[in-house]
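Let us practice reading a record.
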Amino acid sequence: MIKDLLRRISILMILIPLLVSAGPGTAQAAHLTDMVVTNTRDNLLLFVKIEGAFTEKMKQAILNGIPTTFSYIVNVTRVRRLFPDQKVVSNKLTHTIKYDNLRKLFVVRRSWEDNRPMTTESMEEAERWMSEIESLPVVSLSQLKKGGRYKVNAKTELDKITLPFRLNYLFFFVSLWDFETEWHSVDFVY
């Protein structure tokens, strides 16, 4: 009886720190900021940043060579009064970071820039590249109607990490830094 009680207490002592660290008090506070929509002569452009995406656990995983991908989902819809909103365009962009331990370099690839590798020795610079979209051509102005009301919606999520089967057991903590931001919107009239 005492042996069984001690075993249960031991299990609780192990589980409580894990449950507390994964609880809502430490939930990811990632969110989109500074979302701006502007245009050139031909295209609608988007500028947006994500803040609070890089936790210490995520930084440590990146430094250990685990590639990390952020997906940005960007939708443009035409707002209509009597009918449901009409989707004009939907884009999914990815930013991927990987640390090269041999060369001591961070390599960032952004899908909307043809996945061209950008390298830096600075973690802060690599984080900035991962966390920003600047001058993204979202939609051609020829697809928009003059005087129409539109909405640009955006959100970001951390792509799930796929590890080899046996490593999934060792890296169960990776799921503790998954996140998805709320939708962020900007309304405009063209």
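A brief commentary: The helical segments are 2-21, 56-63, 123-131, 165-170.
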